[in-house]
Amino acid sequence: MKTVICYYSRHHGNTLKVLEAMAEGQDVELIDVTAPRAAVHLERYDAVGFASGIYYGKFHDNVTSFARQYLPEGKDVFFIYTCGSKRDGYTKVIAEAVTAKRANILGEYGCRGYDTFGPFKLVGGIAKGHPNADELQKAREFFRSICK
Ligand SMILES: Cc1cc2nc3c(=O)[nH]c(=O)nc-3n(C[C@H](O)[C@H](O)[C@H](O)COP(=O)(O)O)c2cc1C
Questions:
Q1: Which residue among 11, 61, 85, 90 is best mutated to probe the pocket of ligand 1, counting the most ligand atoms within 8 A of its Cβ?
Q2: Most exposed residue of 8, 37, 95, 105, measured as fewest CB within 10 angstroms of its CB?
Q3: What is the pTM of this model?
Q4: CA distance 51 to 40
Q5: Residue 81 per-residue DSSP state
Q6: CB within 6 Å of ligand 1 — which residues?
Q7: CA–CA gap between residue 64 and residue 40 (Å, rounded)
């Protein structure tokens, strides 16, 4: 199965770390949604992932805009994220964006990622050491289950 994951990972590269672990030995392409690009052809892939750190309770707006602009109708889609603290609802906005394109949502994987945003910086950050080896392994397992 040919897969692409469109991502935004800026705070500490936590999400990219998860994606690189998942992609090892797999037929998956990674697209940084902030990178300059000539053309995007998501129709070439069997499944499309969207990945992001969580920014103010949701995927970064750059990822959601990218989905709105480039996701073809009726695709198989999945979500990956990292966040300072786990809570429900982080995929709500991106899920609405892809649902508007009649996407089939296969699932989501989220784990914690080192977070030094705002006041957390004063205490040396939260979720230090995350994503950890166990979380990277779970991400690989999630990806394998998506590819089945
Ligand atoms: C501006 C900003 C806002 C954030 N908002 C949240 C949030 O609402 N909830 C949360 O759990 N983490 C939040 N975080 C922490 C990040 O989601 C977390 O560190 C994530 O792993 C960053 O991913 P990245 O390194 O791939 O960009 C925020 C971080 C920044 C810099």
A1: 11
A2: 37
A3: 0.97
A4: 16
A5: E
A6: 9-16, 53-57, 82-85, 113-115, 117
A7: 15
pLDDT tens digits for range 111-138 = 999 999 989 888 889 999 999 999 999 9
For CA atoms 97, 52, 21, 139, the dihedral sign is negative
CA–CA dist 58, 52 (Å, integer): 9
**End-to-end CA separation in angstroms for the chain:** 8
Placement of tokens 């394109």 in the chain: 101
Task: Tell me how far apart the alpha carbons of residues 83 and 135 are, in angstroms, rounded to a whole number.
Answer: 12
Estimate the crossing angle of helix 14-23 against helix 133-147, to 10 degrees. 50
Task: Give, to the nearest 10 degrees, the angle between helix 61-70 and helix 92-99.
Answer: 10
Question: pLDDT tens digit string along 58-85?
Answer: 999 999 999 999 999 999 999 999 999 9
Sequence-separated (6 or more) residues with CB below 8 Å from residue 91: 59, 79, 81, 108, 110
Distance of CA 47 from the midpoint of ligand 1 (Å): 26
